[in-house]
UniProtKB/TrEMBL annotation:
<dbReference type="InterPro" id="IPR012334">
    <property type="entry name" value="Pectin_lyas_fold"/>
</dbReference>
<keyword id="KW-0961">Cell wall biogenesis/degradation</keyword>
<dbReference type="GO" id="GO:0045490">
    <property type="term" value="P:pectin catabolic process"/>
</dbReference>
<feature type="signal peptide">
    <location>
        <begin position="1"/>
        <end position="20"/>
    </location>
</feature>
<dbReference type="Pfam" id="PF00295">
    <property type="entry name" value="Glyco_hydro_28"/>
</dbReference>
<feature type="active site">
    <location>
        <position position="282"/>
    </location>
</feature>
<dbReference type="InterPro" id="IPR006626">
    <property type="entry name" value="PbH1"/>
</dbReference>
<dbReference type="InterPro" id="IPR000743">
    <property type="entry name" value="Glyco_hydro_28"/>
</dbReference>
<keyword id="KW-0326">Glycosidase</keyword>
<dbReference type="InterPro" id="IPR011050">
    <property type="entry name" value="Pectin_lyase_fold/virulence"/>
</dbReference>
<dbReference type="GO" id="GO:0071555">
    <property type="term" value="P:cell wall organization"/>
</dbReference>
<keyword id="KW-0325">Glycoprotein</keyword>
<keyword id="KW-0677">Repeat</keyword>
<keyword id="KW-0964">Secreted</keyword>
<dbReference type="GO" id="GO:0047911">
    <property type="term" value="F:galacturan 1,4-alpha-galacturonidase activity"/>
</dbReference>
<comment type="similarity">
    <text>Belongs to the glycosyl hydrolase 28 family.</text>
</comment>
<dbReference type="GO" id="GO:0004650">
    <property type="term" value="F:polygalacturonase activity"/>
</dbReference>
């Protein structure tokens, strides 16, 4: 009852204006200016596209402003109320400098709405509360602070809006117990037709974003940065993970993180990733796949284009679990899954200080290669092209600059590499590990 009262009070307090496409000045009760609404950016996949449709939203007709309560009070209830009120052709404007989010937000009801974020949304570092109350997903035991879904949704940060996960408390707790449930900073769940742009994402407890059961989304101008200030590293901070999703474009973004820059998890189709600068990551990855015994995973029709990758373990990466149960770490185990990786292109990539320009493995999570060969992967990889890559690897495996290892020739077909000009820092002739591959298709110096 108390919560309902709060929601009603918040609804009553929301001012409403008619016709607004940016440029409306919003005042506080004392007359001072809080901010001005931003125009919704017009976004298109560029230069490449998936060939499928994205949304064209109508002009929004109403604006709901949410002013932060301040002093660490939870702004989640009044944000929820505003989203309900302006859902259906409206805009919710978050113009205050700092909003505190202390309770989970299930925003999977959105339908025809713009969200103009110019301040910071900061999640509280209450690790006990969030572990008990976050949204839970069975895939890889993941969870999130909030979930955004629905149709025809534009969320824009205009280069200012920030989402802060207060990650430090989580990095330190994870170092003590790797089985804690670290929330993903943003989960897009059942979201169909959306643009997400101009946001700064900071200090995620683990992955920055997951896209689940979603379609037709453009991400543009996302700036990711985080890290730990203690001795405990910020681990598993993937930029994006796509899962059971179709027709997603990720472009023009800067990612400074410590795990996959982008990762296509099971059932990711029609993906374009272009114009990214990734620093410190594990590359643009297909997978890991085949983690769940006898489950069919598909990753198909993916184009990765124009990527700058620095200080990373990999640039182009395909990782598949072997046909036998394996443990990568105490909180990540799997193997024995089935499925297909088909029609994947990596094109136009510049690297610097990257361990492997190309890494393809069907032995993910298993150190014993003999065992991998005894139980080859039951997930086929075919029609993959790596082309136009240049730059310098790291000294880690010098002079080896790439590795392509299939667990059996029967499960890898038509894997092509051409115009790859990666050199090791020593200046020696570069080498590649190539196992169970059709070498006639690899224009690489296989050792
Ligand atoms: C939103 O606008 C469209 C087109 O103008 C209209 O059909 C629809 O009913 C509106 N939705 C709401 C909830 O007002
Ligand atoms: C590559 O991406 C960068 C942004 O990272 C952009 O400035 C540049 O124009 C893009 N080049 C091509 C050929 O698309
Ligand atoms: C790459 O990341 C490291 C570590 O966070 C940082 O020190 C460095 O400035 C970053 N470089 C670029 C070019 O972003
Ligand atoms: C992926 O899609 C296939 C159908 O194409 C389905 O059989 C399979 O269960 C899906 N896998 C996951 C992980 O959802
Ligand atoms: C391969 O994927 C690309 C998108 O990356 C798509 O344009 C093309 O049609 C696909 N090829 C086939 C044979 O389906
Ligand atoms: C999920 O967590 C449980 C324990 O909390 C663990 O036993 C299991 O292996 C985890 N699953 C995956 C896929 O990591
Ligand atoms: C990141 O890469 C740049 C360019 O290769 C290099 O100058 C810098 O030292 C690297 N930073 C780290 C933290 O490795
Ligand atoms: C690797 O696997 C093989 C085959 O099962 C086994 O004989 C061998 O002992 C294993 N090696 C190690 C180091 O565990």
């Amino acid at each position: 009852m108390r919560l309902l009262g709060l929601v009603v009070a918040a609804l009553a307090a929301l001012p409403e204006v008619v016709e607004c496409a940016g440029g409306r000045v919003h005042h506080a009760k004392d007359g001072s200016v809080i901010g001005t609404t931003a125009p919704r950016p017009t976004l298109k996949p560029k230069p490449l596209t998936t060939g499928k449709q994205f949304i064209k939203s109508e002009r929004r007709k109403r604006t709901c402003f949410v002013d932060a309560l301040g002093n660490g009070r939870d702004d989640a209830p009044q944000i929820l109320a505003a989203l309900h009120k302006c859902n259906g052709n409206g805009t919710v404007a978050l113009l205050s400098p700092l909003y505190t989010i202390a309770t989970p937000l299930d925003l999977t009801f959105l339908n025809g709405i713009d969200i103009d974020i110019q301040g910071t949304l900061k999640f509280t570092p209450d690790t006990d509360f969030w572990q008990a109350n976050s949204f839970k997903y069975t895939f890889q035991n993941s969870s999130s602070f909030w979930q955004i879904g629905g149709t025809d949704v534009n969320i824009f940060g205009s280069g200012k809006g920030t989402i802060d996960g207060s990650g430090q408390a989580w990095y330190d707790l994870y170092a003590q117990d790797p089985l804690i449930l670290r929330p993903i900073l943003i989960a897009y769940k059942d979201l169909h037709g959306a643009t997400i742009s101009g946001l700064k994402l900071r200090y995620s407890p683990q992955w920055y974003q997951i896209v689940i059961d979603s379609s037709n989304i453009i991400f543009d101008g996302i700036d990711i940065f985080g890290g730990s200030i203690s001795k405990n590293p910020a681990k598993n901070t993937d930029g994006w993970d796509t899962y059971r999703s179709d027709n997603i474009v990720i472009q023009n973004s800067h990612i400074d993180n410590g795990d996959d820059c982008v990762s296509f998890k099971p059932n990711s189709t029609n993906m374009v990733v272009q114009g990214l600068f990734c620093n410190g990551s594990h590359g643009i990855s297909v997978g890991s796949l085949g983690q769940y015994y006898k489950v069919y995973d598909l990753v198909e029709d993916v184009y990765v284009y124009n990527i700058t990758m620095i200080n990373a373990s990999d640039m182009a990466r395909i990782k598949v679990w072997p046909g036998i149960q394996s443990a990568l770490s105490v909180d990540l185990q799997g193997g024995g899954g089935i499925g297909l990786v088909n029609n994947i292109t990596y094109d136009n990539m510049q690297i610097s200080n990257v361990d492997y320009g190309i890494e393809l493995t069907q032995c993910y999570g298993q150190k014993n290669l003999t065992l991998c060969n005894e139980y080859p992967s039951t997930l086929e990889i075919k029609n993959v092209v790596f082309k136009n890559m240049w730059g310098t690897a790291s000294k880690k495996y010098d002079p080896t600059v790439g590795t392509l290892v299939c667990s059996s020739p029967a499960v890898c077909h038509n894997i092509v590499a051409k115009n790859i000009n990666v050199v090791p820092p020593s200046g020696k002739a570069p080498k590649y590990t190539c196992t169970n591959m059709d070498r006639t298709l690899l224009e690489l110096p296989c050792a």
